[in-house]
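In response to reviewer comment 3 from the previous cycle, which asked for concrete evidence that the modeling workflow produces usable outputs, we include below a single protein chain processed end to end. The sequence was submitted unchanged, and the resulting structure tokens are shown without manual editing.
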Amino acid sequence: MAHEPSGFTLLSGNCTVLAKAGASCVMSPNYPYPYPALHTCSLAVPPTPLRVVDFDTERGFDFVYVNGEGYSGSGGSSLYGVTPLDGQIEFTSDGSVEATGFHLCVDLWDAPPSSPAPQPTPPPPMPPPRSPSPSLPPPAPPLKPPQSPPPCPPPATPPTHVAVLLPSRTGFSKVNQRP
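The workflow returned the following structure tokens.
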């Protein structure tokens, strides 16, 4: 059986520890409202990479310490993915400006699923093909391609006049000739 990590454990202070499906999370006191001044909370945590859900502390004065390094300010992107190798996290706030604080989680990869995933329902079987109904008329024969019209018959009598244009010095002259 795989070892199931316990997630965050509150050692001191008023941070909130919350277990979610497959994850353990911790939030600063009063989160998402401002945390109190002059507050400290300490937590034990498994050596698992941190996931930052939200992070906003007074830059340079209020810190979340992981592996001895203090993180402060907004966003927490530099804290994302940090693994608490010593198994401890500490939060401290000074006596002046407070902010909304933090919401951090660790994924509990070894945690058993809450229930097995439902299996997809197979589609119903296809009905057998139906035979044609005797009351329906038989299918129509295929259409024939259109035929081209018959060629035009030759004229009954030859033309009686032919006009010919001949070049001249002043242009063209029309000459009528009989065939």
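The chain has no helices and eleven strands. We consider this sufficient to address the reviewer's concern, and the full set will be provided in the supplementary archive.
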